[in-house]
Write a structure and sequence with these properties.
Layout: H1 2-11, H2 16-22, H3 28-41, H4 43-55, H5 59-72, H6 78-83, H7 90-103, H8 109-115, H9 121-131, H10 139-145, H11 152-166, H12 170-180, H13 190-205, H14 211-219, H15 224-240, H16 244-257, H17 263-276, H18 279-287, H19 293-306, H20 312-321, H21 324-343, H22 349-364, H23 368-381, H24 386-395, H25 401-411, H26 416-427, H27 434-446, H28 450-457, H29 467-482
C-alpha cells in the first residue's frame, strides 16, 4: 500500500478519486497511507475528505479522513474537523484532536479543551499529548478552569498541562488558587486562606519551622477545601524555598499523599506535584507499589513532561519488565530526551544518553510491540538520537538493520544532512563495507526526504538500494507508525 499510495500522492489532484475510493477498503495499512497521500495533495483533497468525514458509515474511514484534513494544511479544513469533534467513535475524536493541532488554527482551542474532558479516557490521553504542542495563549485560562472539574482525571491532566506550559511562574499559582475557591466543595474561609498563605511564605523564607505542623494538620484533615489549599501550599514550598530542610519536608509530604487511600487526596497531591515540578516525588511514586496504579501511570506520563535525565534510571526497569507500564515508560524516556535535545539544539549529552538507553532496551526487547514502541520513542528524541541510531545501524546484526533503518527513517530529514550522507560516504567503496553502504542508502530512501531520494536516484545502478531491503525497512517503519 505504501508505494502505490505515495505514487498517487505524487500525481496530485487527478489521483484524488482513486485515493477516496481506496478509503472504502477498510484495510488499516491502506487507510494509513491514503490519509497521508490525501494530506500531501492538499487543497484538491480537502473537500472530498470533508465529505467522507461527515458521511461515511465507517469509523476507521472517518478517522482516516480526519487525518488527511490535518495533513492538507488548508484553513478551510478546520470547520469540518470542529464539526466532527462530537463523532460517536473515540478513534475519530482522537484523529480530530491530532488534525486540529496539526493545522494550528486558534479556532480549535475551545474544542481541544473540550476533548480533554471527553467521556473516553483514550481520547483524553490523546488530546493531552496534542495539547503539549499547542501554544495558543487563551488555552491557559481555559485549562485553569478545569482544575476544579468534577472528574479526577481531567483535573490531573489540566494541572500537568499547565505545569508544562507555564512552568513555575506565578500565573499557575494564581490559577490553582482561583480554582481552589471556585466551587462549593473546595471553599476555604478567607481567614484560613490568609493563614495558609502566611505559613507558606514563612516556610519559603525559612522564618517559622512551626508552620510545617500547621500545614500538615490541614492537609490531614477531613475538609476537602482546606486540605486542597494546604497541599497546594506545600507545593509552593517545594518549588520556591531555598531552605533545604523545608523543601525536603514539602517533597516528602507530597509523596505521602500520592499514596493516600482517598482518590480525591491523591489527585490533589498529583496536581500539587505537577505544579511544583518536583520530579523526585513522581519518581518515588513510580517505584512505590503502594501508590494506586492509575496514579503511578499518570506519574510515569508526567515524568515525560517534567522529568530530568535522573528520571531515566527509574523508568528503565519498567521498560525491562514489559506490560502496560513499559510502553508508558518508553514514551516518557523519549519525551525527556526530546525536551533535552530541543533545549540544546541536539547537542545535549543527557539526550544522547536517553537515546542510547532506549536503543539498548530495544535491542534486548522480545515483545515486538514493545520493540516498536521503543523504536518510536528513540525517533521522538529528534536530532540528538541521530548519531546513536547511526551507530546502532553500523553495529547491528543483519536481522536488526531493517529496524535500525526504520528508526532513522522515522527521524526523517533531520537525519539526512549531514549525518546519513556523511556516514554513507565514509563507507562508500570501502572493501567489506558494501552491505552497510547499501543499508545507508536504504535508510536515506525511507526518510522520504527529497534530497535523500535524489541522492539515491543519482547513484550508479550497482549502488542503488535494493527494492527488497527498502521493503524490509518500510515494513519495520510501518510497525513504528502502528504504535503511534
Amino acid at each position: 500500500a505504501y508505494t502505490a499510495e505515495q505514487a498517487l500522492a505524487a500525481i496530485g489532484g487527478p489521483a484524488v478519486p482513486s485515493l477516496v475510493q481506496s478509503l472504502s477498503t477498510g484495510d488499516p495499512q491502506v487507510l494509513k497511507w491514503v490519509s497521508i497521500a490525501l494530506g500531501d495533495i492538499g487543497y484538491d483533497a480537502w473537500k472530498p475528505a470533508s465529505r467522507i468525514l461527515a458521511e461515511s458509515p465507517s469509523a476507521s474511514t472517518r478517522a482516516a479522513a480526519a487525518k488527511a484534513l490535518g495533513g492538507t494544511g488548508y484553513a478551510d479544513a478546520v470547520k469540518p474537523l470542529l464539526d466532527a469533534a462530537q463523532d460517536p467513535s473515540p478513534p475519530v475524536r482522537m484523529a480530530v484532536a491530532s488534525a486540529l493541532v496539526q493545522l494550528g488554527d486558534a479556532r480549535a482551542t475551545p474544542t481541544l479543551v473540550a476533548l480533554l474532558q471527553d467521556r473516553d479516557a483514550a481520547v483524553r490521553a490523546a488530546t493531552m499529548d496534542r495539547l503539549l504542542e499547542w501554544y495558543d495563549p487563551p488555552t491557559l485560562p481555559q485549562l485553569a478552569g478545569l482544575l476544579d472539574a468534577s472528574d479526577v482525571d481531567v483535573r490531573r491532566r489540566s494541572a500537568i498541562l499547565l505545569a508544562e506550559h507555564v512552568g513555575g511562574q506565578e500565573e499557575l499559582q494564581a490559577a490553582v488558587a482561583s480554582a481552589t475557591t471556585a466551587g462549593e466543595a473546595h471553599s476555604v474561609p478567607q481567614r484560613m486562606m490568609n493563614d495558609i498563605a502566611e505559613w507558606t511564605d514563612a516556610l519559603v523564607a525559612g522564618t517559622d519551622a512551626q508552620a510545617q505542623g500547621n500545614l500538615q494538620r490541614l492537609a490531614d484533615g477531613d475538609d476537602p477545601g482546606p486540605r486542597y489549599a494546604a497541599v497546594v501550599g506545600m507545593s509552593t514550598v517545594a518549588r520556591r524555598t531555598a531552605v533545604q530542610g523545608n523543601r525536603d519536608w514539602a517533597v516528602g509530604e507530597l509523596g505521602k499523599r500520592l499514596k493516600a487511600k482517598d482518590p480525591e487526596l491523591q489527585t490533589t497531591a498529583a496536581v500539587a506535584v505537577a505544579r511544583a515540578r518536583v520530579p523526585a516525588v513522581l519518581e518515588a511514586a513510580v517505584k512505590d507499589a503502594q501508590v494506586a496504579q492509575d496514579v503511578r501511570q499518570e506519574s510515569i506520563k508526567a515524568l515525560g513532561l517534567l522529568g530530568t535525565n535522573s528520571s531515566v534510571p527509574v523508568l528503565i526497569p519498567l521498560c525491562e519488565a514489559g506490560g502496560a507500564g513499559a510502553a508508558l515508560a518508553s514514551a516518557a524516556i523519549g519525551n525527556i530526551g526530546r525536551r533535552l535535545s530541543e533545549e540544546s539544539e541536539g547537542r545535549s549529552p543527557e539526550a544522547l544518553e536517553a537515546a542510547n538507553t532506549l536503543i539498548k532496551l530495544a535491542r534486548s526487547a522480545r515483545d515486538p510491540i514493545l520493540k516498536a514502541e521503543l523504536g518510536l520513542s528513540i525517533a521522538q528524541i529528534g536530532e540528538a538520537a541521530v548519531t546513536p541510531a547511526i551507530d546502532f545501524l553500523k553495529g547491528a546484526e543483519k536481522s536488526e538493520r531493517p529496524f535500525a533503518a526504520a528508526i532513522l527513517g522515522k527521524l526523517g530529514n533531520v537525519a539526512v544532512d549531514p549525518y546519513l550522507l556523511r556516514a554513507r560516504n565514509e563507507v562508500r567503496g570501502v572493501e567489506g563495507q558494501e552491505e552497510l553502504s547499501e543499508w545507508f542508502a536504504v535508510t536515506l530512501w525511507v526518510t522520504g526526504d527529497k534530497m535523500a531520494r535524489d541522492y539515491c536516484q543519482a547513484l550508479p545502478d550497482e549502488e542503488k538500494p535494493s527494492p527488497e531491503k527498502i521493503g524490509q525497512a518500510q515494513a519495520e517503519l510501518e510497525k513504528l507508525l502502528d504504535v503511534m
